Amino acid sequence: MSKLEAKHLGIRFGGLQAVKDFNLTMESGELVAIIGPNGAGKTTTFNMLTGMYLPTEGELALDDISMVGKMPYEINEMGLSRTFQNIRLFSSLSVMENIRIAMKREAKYSFFEALFRTKKYKLAEKQINEEAMELLKLFEMEDVAGLQAKNLPYGEQRKLEIIRALAGKPKILLLDEPAAGMNPTEIEEVMGIIAKVRKMYDVSILLIEHHMSMVMKIADRIFVLDFGETIAEGTPEEIQGNPKVIEAYLGKGGADEDE
Ligand SMILES: Nc1ncnc2c1ncn2[C@@H]1O[C@H](COP(=O)(O)OP(=O)(O)OP(=O)(O)O)[C@@H](O)[C@H]1O
Q1: Digit-coded pLDDT (tens) for 159-192
Q2: Which residues line ligand 1 (CB under 6 A)?
Q3: Cα 39 to ligand 1 centroid, rounded to whole Å
Q4: Which is deepest, 121, 123, 158, 159, by most CB within 10 Å?
Q5: How much is the average pLDDT of 191-199?
Q6: Considering only CA atoms, which residue is closest to atom 12 of ligand 1?
Q7: Domain ABC transporter: where (predicted)?
């Protein structure tokens, strides 16, 4: 069981209040989506949650331990992993190596054990390989394990990003537009994978996504940001009919038409 909590979280860049009074409590196994028009503050919120930006207001805690002021690697060690809007793989390394690097943190052997290739080292390495392969199978990518990441089709690179974030066994997985630039078939596939990941691993997922059909199908709860403010929060059904949300997306006319 893990709990991510943001209370009155906010950040100001000079005169711009990019995120204001963001409040979230996420319990184990939940899938929560953050949506909103361009520039609404979604990625900035992710950046605060992962220690890339220092909030100027509010509190942030994982399992009641404050995350404010911690470095991104410390927050990662606490159990938060993320993917990025723009793919950030080690492009010249193989698919397998990309996953293994993310798993190394978990490796249970010392430098000297690795140097002398002890039995313990070999066993740990075998386990890492098996776990990496298991993840690749889940994503139906076992056939491309040896390919350089840069030679993967775009959709598979996005999938590899998710595998890499999962490889560190996070408590909370943050996905920043996992379906960006994908075709409808790939979007369906990623949706299925996210649902599977959630079932198979004890992980809560926080998702930024522009594809409404996907968000509406898989999210338990949705937060809608507009100009840094949370203008709505609720189940997909509640959000779909919310006039404020329709207005944020379509302008005042759109909201009126639907009222
Ligand atoms: N480092 C920064 N310095 C100054 N302003 C920033 C910085 N990072 C983000 N912003 C501003 O904060 C606001 C929110 O940006 P953010 O990228 O979080 O939006 P978003 O909702 O993720 O948008 P998109 O859907 O286009 O990715 C924008 O006005 C952006 O220009």
Answers
A1: 999 999 999 889 999 999 998 888 888 888 888 8
A2: 13, 16, 18, 36, 38-44
A3: 5
A4: 159
A5: 88
A6: 18
A7: 4-252
